[in-house]
Amino acid sequence: MNGSMALSATAALIAMCLMASGGCAADLNPAAVTFKAPDQIPWKSNPSGADNATLLGDPSKPGLYIQLVRWHAGHMSHPHFHPNDRFITVLSGTWWVGTGTRFDPDATVPMPAGSYVVHYGKQVHYDGAKDGDTVLEIVGEGPATATPAEEK
Question: What does the pLDDT look like over 95-122, one tens digit per residue?
């Protein structure tokens, strides 16, 4: 058997072993790393137009929380504010952000995937998705209430 045939046979043997073991060469130590595959993330549907999944903490209680929020196309919040700062990364889609007490979706600014946004506590803003679904990661300090602040 020449060198390239031996290499091919070795590669095939390694591939078969990996497939037989479920594709993982080693198990992760749960004391060192925990994870959830995308299909294991606990999304909760919300009739308000944005689904969410809490990854850490409880946004309704004091303390650190991390959430994923999926805004559905065509849904925008109205002017409101939160008691504490919120740190937001746009993971996919385009998120549209506006400020002030007058709701004006045409005055929002696009935040494409990869953008980082800070909503400062007690400052009025509104936001949402226009043309397509948008997924955000929000990190904040609870409780994460929203107080309406729309000028009528």
Answer: 999 999 999 999 999 999 999 999 999 9
